[in-house]
Amino acid sequence: MNRADKQAELLSAESFNRELGEFIDASPTPFHAVANIASQLREAGFCALNEAHEWTLERGGKYFVTRNGSSIIAFIVGSDDLSKTGMRLAGAHTDSPCLMVKPQPEMLNSGYFQLGVEVYGGALLNPWFDRDLSLAGRLVFTDVSGQLKQKLVNFAEAIAVIPSLAIHLDREANKDRSINAQTDIPPILMQTEGQADFRELLADRFLAEGEQVMDYELCFYDVQRAASVGLEKEFFASARLDNLLSCFVATQAIIAADTRCTSVLVCNDHEEVGSVSAVGADGPFLESVVERLCATDDRVSQTRILDSSLLISCDNAHALHPNFVSKHDKGHSPVLNGGPVIKVNSSQRYATNSITASLFRQLCGEVTVPVQSFVTRTDLGCGSTIGPVTAAKLGIPTLDVGIPQLAMHSCRELTGALDPQRMSKVLRQFFNRPGRLVVALAEDSDSTAGVE
């Protein structure tokens, strides 16, 4: 791409990235992310459903349902028969590595009031030092009548910090520093002569007279806002790019989808800790929604519908780091602003196969979006996604893709400014492309060729 074309595309992506940044800044926790996705869906004409109720789904109808307030599934009931189109599913996850507040977190050390925290997911801990931190999440409380209620809370300002130890007191800090997650990272909130009660602090800030804190799920986050960076503003920096970027991109795609094909967006919580939960990809949430969707077409079995469907699991990919080139496989080193990445792993840490990868390449070609590939070095371990888990539960053809990024699992990450909008274009094409996908690709093939 020449400089003039790149500048033109950067200008085109500017508005998209501004909205992406606003979404991430307003979504410090999975609960906030789901609430914001739900708000966008409502504005686009999607109707909220309740899992406990009977559903009456109409062809052409747009719906969404949440579970635990931290996972969400949106779908369009296509006007075309499921037997002809299958389902088009795009998946992402709402959670990011962070520091979660413990149930009894109060610590008083040398006149400083601190909170004990638990590391959630595979967080890079060094970047959390010397950052302006705030606190957000879900608060459960009783009202004046004793009824349990919940609300989302967000201090929305810097209230804490984890100071580094000065180099004068740790001369080896730049050579061999390790971090003890129990003792080295409790954030400082204030100075006090006496013991403070964290629940009272929460009640004073967020509750009315007579209401009482019962429990909470709260995490610290960096208050620095998302920003375009670089001399030519060709990079995009933010917290929680992994994986709120994919949540936003996929949400914009399904909002822009037409109503011919049955399209599904699933954003699961708990991917960063293995997906094994009632709301994670290894739980029953998506499966239960798919069963209800398949019931709208009683002429064909769910197995046949899923066999002609496709799931695109969207989770960011490792871009080539210029200071650590040796950590990448030479032939599979994606670059920022080089387009979406197809992620491949023969040990099934990613669910991609040759057919699903070919379909994605075809979709990218149809909207003139470049595409890259990632394979981890053979001598390094490989992360995973919701892709293999969901494929195993549903038996659905799946591939793993992602937008390339640097500093994955840091409290501030970096991606290219061009790639978010590109991925959204591909997903819109995926949702809107008529006819079958997977089955159509295999129809003219002789699957028994070479078999005796």
Task: Please give the largest β-sheet.
Answer: 9 strands, mixed
Tell me the CATH topology of the largest domain: Aminopeptidase
Spatial ordering of strands, largest sheet: 1-2-3-13-4-14-18-16-17
Quaternary arrangement of the chains shown? single chain
Q: Give Rg in angstroms.
A: 23 Å
Tell me the number of strands: 20
> Could you say which overall geometry the principal axes of the C-alpha atoms support?
globular
- In the predicted model, the low-confidence regions spanning at least 5 consecutive residues are 448-452
The structural class is alpha/beta
CATH H-level homologous superfamily name of the largest domain: Zn peptidases
* Secondary structure tally, helices: 11
Q: Fraction of residues in helices?
A: 25-40%
User: How large a portion of the residues is in β-strands, by DSSP E?
Assistant: 25-35%
The top-level CATH class of the largest domain is: Alpha Beta
The average pLDDT is 93
Kindly give the count of domains. Answer: 2
Our measurement of the CA-to-CA distance between the termini, rounded to an integer number of angstroms, reads 48 Å
Assigned CATH architecture of the largest domain = 3-Layer(aba) Sandwich
Walk me through the structure.
With 452 residues, this protein is α/β, with parallel strands linked by helices. It folds into two domains: 298 residues, Aminopeptidase (3-Layer(aba) Sandwich), CATH 3.40.630.10; 125 residues, Roll (Aminopeptidase i, Domain 2), CATH 2.30.250.10. The protein is built from eleven helices and 20 strands. The strands form three sheets. It has a nine-stranded mixed sheet with strand order 1-2-3-13-4-14-18-16-17, with helices on both faces. Strand 16, helix 8 and strand 17 form a beta-alpha-beta unit. It starts with a helix and ends in a 10-residue tail after the last helix. The C terminus is likely disordered.
